């Protein structure tokens, strides 16, 4: 009897040890015996909560930085337009201006930007921002560094869209072109199928209408994420000018600008990086797809681009704006080709869009390709809004392409504005 009891005890002990090393089940169970980070509960993977215990993270956040060193996060754009980054330590004196920052490199074969047998890609720093994720209290800033990519020989990579855009703006510096970019995005649970505020494998009971610029737990989904993004961008030095809830539930928007020339692309790209980092903290999936929900009566997502040259802001600017619009009309399909992937799903002529196949413009008309604001019409000067770029469009390509087109010295046919009835 004694031997039987001992064997049973051993088997029970082995079973307990084995269970301790088994993966946690999908539905987390409370445990009164397991202690993790000082808590008698297994970490949850619920959307909207941090993936790690904040008390543990706080221990390391409390460590003092060496006063003569800075953590520099080098950020770049990969082969498909997403941001990537890695960190290095630099002496403070090398981080005071972008010209002092050293170039760096990365394995381009792991980002589809170089072959495996010649994989080194060079990162050249172009713009410095304060790092909102590694805040210091000693008067020194850790930094985010927006970079672009080159071969070891110094040639821009085919994926380096910033290079050509910068050349375009350098040729027209006297125009002092302002851009305001409206970045829409959609927040999903980590299943990447269910937008925030939507039932799993279903659709909201209420149609579009109550969600735009909304308040209330039944209407606004993701405000904490958007507000965190807002504060992080302000801290970083990005010229973020506003945020709002969008028309589809789970969809949000922020605006960057006005920014001058190439800085619009730099700031928008870095804001996208910050957005993804914020969503990482909240454990929420963020997509820039222009039509993440194709079934049902739901709006897509865009990157509406507001444009104003120096002459557009001066007396008689409205005629300059109209002439620019006529040039954009003449090259409509050229612009559509570079205004983002999946845009054909969004530009249908419905849900505040114009048809992808037909160019049109109008005053205060959100169903047009190009919109002129009422204030611009009344004052006779100001800006126009290109509503065609998709939410995943490359801001370097979009801003550079618009600049290229409207600066061309060519004669183009006038285009009649849409009236309210036609809209």
Key phrases:
alpha+beta, disordered N terminus, 13 strands
In total, the number of strands is 13
What is the helical fraction, as a range of percent? 25-40%
Low-confidence stretches: 1-45
Question: How many DSSP H or I helices?
Answer: 10
Mean pLDDT: 89
What summary fits the major beta sheet? 8 strands, mixed
Structural class: alpha+beta
The gross shape turns out to be globular
- Beta percentage is 15-25%
CA-CA gap between termini = 90 Å
Order of helices and strands: HHEEEEEHEHEEHEEHHHEEHEH
The Rg value, from CA coordinates, equals 26 Å
Provide a descriptive summary of the structure in words:
With 423 residues, the protein is α+β, with helices and mostly antiparallel strands. 27% of the residues lie in helices and 20% in strands. The protein has 10 helices and 13 strands. Strands 6, 7, 8, 9, 10, 11, 12 and 13 form an 8-stranded mixed beta sheet that branches.
